Amino acid sequence: EVELVESGGGSVQAGGSLRLVCTGPGYIHGNSFRGWFRQAPGNDREGVAVIGYGGSTEYTDSVKDRFTVSRDNAKDIVHLQMNNLKPEDSAIYYCAAGRALSLNPDWVSYWGQGVQVTVSS
């Protein structure tokens, strides 16, 4: 069974930064993409940033120029650096392993348990 574990969530004021970390198998056959998704109360789960095994990335428009996704394949770690956080970024953030470089949750095969991010104004 694939286990993805997130850490690094917390509470910050608007304009602050957080760095999320996801640990888990660096390569899963057929699911080499890693990503971060988030879900706020009452909302659907949405893709935030995804990264391929070779480093290709995709971001949702609302986080471009503020968030950066990266991975260290040798250490089986994926990071999400979040800068200039806004209250609308508040959500549970999930690490994911998927089958394509896509922000669509339908392409995800494995999910972490999630970590809370709260941004106050």
Summarize this entry quickly.
The chain is an all-beta fold. It has strands spanning 5-7, 10-13, 18-23, 33-39, 46-51, 57-59, 67-72, 77-82, 91-98, 108-111, 115-120. It starts with a strand and ends with a strand.
Provide structural commentary:
This protein has 121 residues and is mainly beta. Helices cover 0% and strands 49% of the residues. The chain has no helices and eleven strands. The protein has strands spanning 5-7, 10-13, 18-23, 33-39, 46-51, 57-59, 67-72, 77-82, 91-98, 108-111, 115-120. The strands form two sheets. Strands 2, 4, 5, 6, 9, 10 and 11 form a seven-stranded mixed sheet that branches. The chain has a four-stranded antiparallel sheet with strand order 1-3-8-7, with no helix packed on it. It is globular, with a radius of gyration of 13 Å. The model has no long low-confidence stretch (mean pLDDT 95).
Topology:
Elements: E1 5-7, E2 10-13, E3 18-23, E4 33-39, E5 46-51, E6 57-59, E7 67-72, E8 77-82, E9 91-98, E10 108-111, E11 115-120
Parallel strand pairs: 2-11
Antiparallel strand pairs: 1-3, 3-8, 4-5, 4-9, 5-6, 7-8, 9-10, 9-11
Through-space gap between termini: 40 Å
Query: What is the number of strand segments?
Result: 11
List the total number of helices.
0
Mean pLDDT: 95
Binned strand content: over 45%
Overall 3D shape? globular
Strand and helix order: EEEEEEEEEEE
> Helix/strand-derived class?
mainly beta
Specify the helix fraction band.
Answer: under 10%
